[in-house]
Each structure stands twice: as C-alpha cells, then as structure tokens.
Amino acid sequence: MDRTLSSFIRALRAAGAEVSTGEAIDAARVLAMIGYGDKSELKTAFSLVLAKTLPEKAIHDRVFDLFFSAPATADATSSPDPDDDSATDKAGASEVEQLMSLVRGAGGGNADQLMAEIAQAAESAGVDDIRFPSQIPYYVRQTMQQMGIAPLEARLRDLLLSPSPQTHQEATDLAAARDALQRHVRVRVDQRFQLFGKPATESFLSDVAVNRALGRMGSADLERMKIAVARMAKRLATKHSRRRRITSRGKLDLRGTLRANASHDFIPFNLVLKYKRRDKPRIVAICDVSASVSQQAHFLLLFLYALRDTITDLSTFAFSSQLYDIAAPLDTLPFDDAMAFILQEYGSGSTDYGQAFADLADRHWDLIDRRTTVLILGDGRSNQTDPRLDLFREMSERAKRVIWLCPEPPGRWGTGDSCMLQYRTFATHVSHCTSAVDIERAIDEALEAYV
Question: Minimal CA–CA distance to 443: which of 361, 349, 376?
C-alpha cells in the first residue's frame, strides 16, 4: 500500500475512526483511480470509503485537512527554541551557501522546495512515532540533522570562536539561517504531533483514568472519562452483537437430519439445524445515589446510557431511601443534566436499602423474572435499618442473576452498619468496584449470560 495512504489511515485510527482492512483496501483502489492531484475530490472519495458514521466523517474531514495541508511557514519573528547541540564537521563554503539559500527561500520562490525537504527529513527522523509533547524538541533536532545542518553549525561555531569585523556579518547570517530553519521544522513537527502524538497521549491518559478510583477524579479526568466510557461501551456493544450473530446460526441436528433424509437413503440433501433459545438482555439496574457512592453510580448509569441500543429492555432505578424510576430524565435530558437532577432529587435522603427493596417489590416486582439480570450498585450500608433480606432473597430466586457492585473493599464488608456479608449470601456475584474498568467488567459479565 502507498506509504502516504498507510500513514493517513494510521492517523485516522489514532483519532478514533475504526478503519477496517477492507476499507483500507478500498481507499487504495480509490487512490489508484484519482491520485493525489485533486485534494478536494480525494477528500470526498476517501470519506465515502473510510467513514461509516457521522462522527467518523467528522474525524475523517478534520484529519484529512491536517494531514494533507502543508503546514504554514513559520513566523519569522517567532523566537527559536534553545538548542545547545553543535556539529563538529566543517564543510566548504558552497555547501553552507546552498543551505542558507534554501532557508532564505522559505518566504519566496523556494518555499515549496523547503517544505518538501523538511517533510522528507522529518519522515527520515521517524517523526510519526512521536508520542508526548516533551519529544518535540528531540524530533526538531533530529529533522535538522537529517537536513544537513551540521556544516552550517560547524561554520558558525568557527566564526564565533574567532570573531572579527570581517566575519561578523557572515556569522549573523548563518545564525539567522539556522534559527529560521528551526522554526520551519518546528511547525512540521507540531503538525505531526497533532496527528499522531496527541491522540496517543490522550489514549495513555484515558487508560490511566479508567483504572483510577472513581471517587478521586478531578474535573479534567471526568471529561476524559466520558469519551473513554463511550468507547468502552461501543466495544461491549460490538462484542456482544457479534456473539449473538454467531450463536444464532444454529448447530447441525444429526438425528433430525437423518430422519429428514430417510427417503433419500439417508443422504443429507436437507440439513436440519437446532437452535438454542436465547433471551435478549433484560437488565434492572438499582443504584444507590447517596453522597458516598454517587460517583460510581454516575458512571454505571453512563455505561448503561451508552448501551441503550444493545440493552433494549433496561429499567433503571435510583434511591437513597425511597426508590424512584429514573428512566424519564435519562431518556429526555442530556446525560449530565439528567444526573444532576437525579442526585438533587433522589440522593439527599438517609440511605435505606430495605425501603428501596420494599418499593421495588410493591411497584416493579413484575420486571424481575428468570430472564432478568439485576445489577445493584451500592455499599450496602443501611443506617441500622431493616435490610429486608427476605425481599432480597426472593428477588434472587426470581431473577436470572443478581450482580452487586460494591465500592467499598471487602475488608470493610460487615463492619458498622454494612450488610454486605448478609446480602452476599443470596447474590449471584458480588465484586469490589472502584474504577470504570470494574464497571465494564461487570456489565460484560451480565451480557455474557445472554449468549
């Protein structure tokens, strides 16, 4: 595949577009027909084969413009980065004059030649492997070395070591040429960082954030987590929709096939398949939204909110003392507004798990049957009220599974007003849940039961 196209597809994937191998092959065919001459036509054609959704089209258009637009030449008045390295090789005057001429041409007729030289040198320096902002000065230096800056710097060093009125102007010109080149190279390296380094940095920070305790997140982490959770939810949706397609194909029923082909001397002209009955995911989520666990409840509901197309039979409830159906705010408001409403309206009471289970039994017990997975998030601390283990046990017997996510570590279960050890007796699975990865794992496990 064309090297430029491969690099472009890599930039698209880094930015979040899921470009498949087949789509990459289609893009190569488009490129063979159109070429790089008409960028507008190429952009339109690539968007048709490389972008499957509106969000991916937005990513494609942004990355295309950045990738295929030559970076503007640097402002001649900007200050160069400090650079203490100097070359030791000395070159003849003709080589120095050639490099100076190339740099001086950035504002005139040789600008395109200079940009092409910088692009080629940056590629040779491996600039597309950049990952962090701190690497920018390194790649600027490597690119300049690939361009042959060493003779100019060697000459400049000699002039500075032996100053004289005759050499002052030449030294000034050489320093200006070096600094101008450095500014133009910096622009190119910055562009490649935006394409390859910044997405890699964000991916690294997201990996850190999704494994961090949800209760310790700052505002910057929360914004990053929304994007990360959306991607995690999309990954779960893709995984389980694929598994359902695979399992829906049926397996060969050998006895049924033989019976159906008895009149053909048992030659299997007609195959008989047997299908395993599969229930669609049916989940009842019950979230403690009191202050001590509200952050974890926020992200569990964010996951479920992002999975609405996959979990079509979803009921969501919140409580601190009394239980409330929160489907309406989640369905009608932007998620952040819905959570603010839920926490304000339902998160200020004194926590009472027994009352929440009683409300569920009185008004929503019919939602729980052998097809239902009940997903509970809470610390199990019920302020010395009746935990209603009788109702929790009945719920467990009615449901397909009961999965409890507890933000507190197991060492604190059963201490003080915690009823977790009692609830654990009847739950299908209880796990310590502190991070987004823990929530993802729990939802994955819940959906596994429906394959």
Answer: 376
